[in-house]
């Protein structure tokens, strides 16, 4: 009995000390356990390799590119680019002088890229949304069609674009064989990889490999819309188009906002598609700004001007992204209100 009494007294005394320390502001703070510190610091420790890679792969080259844009870096200073003369804002002045050949070519490339991006993003979203909405209804072979729709997105970019380059050949390509030889839609076999038709060829390839991503994202967003809403709308007499307009599109607004932004950034910065499709020298009709900056840097060996173009492109994309996010956030707040 004495042992039990002693243990009870000790426990009560300890509880009283903890209570007094809790309510006493002047009491010394209790030491944290080392294990808790390790648990708090573990996430930052795990993120450290990713932060270092981000610094080395993206941030450091970006800073170097900004520095190069203020230098007169040509092929004569490639071995030691730090000794290149300081050009100040001359590279930027040359780039935005639209009356000069360099600025005029850059402006034409910029406008071509804007048109290409609007058409490509619009068609990718339209095809992806139509396919995703159609695939919501269960039918025989739906799984096989979903898999086939994702094949262009799963294929490596180089393999897909090289295949299209062969298909767009004038004399022995599949496109001309179908359009000219089989269907007779053209008077003669057109050139697709040079001239004005190169823009159409580039747009076809971009949409072909981009719309499955839109299909995948929209199809995932459609899974969160309850089927009861569609059933109730059908009982009220709403047709298919009314359901899409009143239920599907408003419900997909958050998904579409992110999807359109991602597609815009990917398409506007696309370098692999025109480079693989046309080579180092893209036709004027398909001269996207990404390939134009590459040609200005590595064809003429004027890296200062090319870096200035890259910095201006980065600023443009930051401004457009910021305005887009601001407008979408305002629209979201207005819809919630």
Automatic annotation (TrEMBL):
Region (Disordered): 1-32
Gene Ontology biological process terms from the UniProt entry: transmembrane transport
UniProt xrefs under SUPFAM superfamilies: MetI-like
Membrane topology: Multi-pass membrane protein
Keywords assigned: Cell membrane, Membrane, Transmembrane, Transmembrane helix, Transport
Segments crossing the lipid bilayer: 40-70, 110-135, 147-167, 199-222, 251-268, 307-327
Keyword Transmembrane appears in the UniProt entry: yes
Location, primary (coarse class): membrane
Residue ranges of every copy of the ABC transmembrane type-1 domain listed in the record: 110-324
GO CC terms: plasma membrane
Biased composition (Low complexity): 1-10
Intracellular or extracellular location(s): Cell membrane
Bias-annotated ranges (Basic and acidic residues): 15-25
Pfam family, one: BPD_transp_1
Family affiliation: Belongs to the binding-protein-dependent transport system permease family.
Protein name: ABC transporter permease
Species, as recorded: Streptomyces pilosus
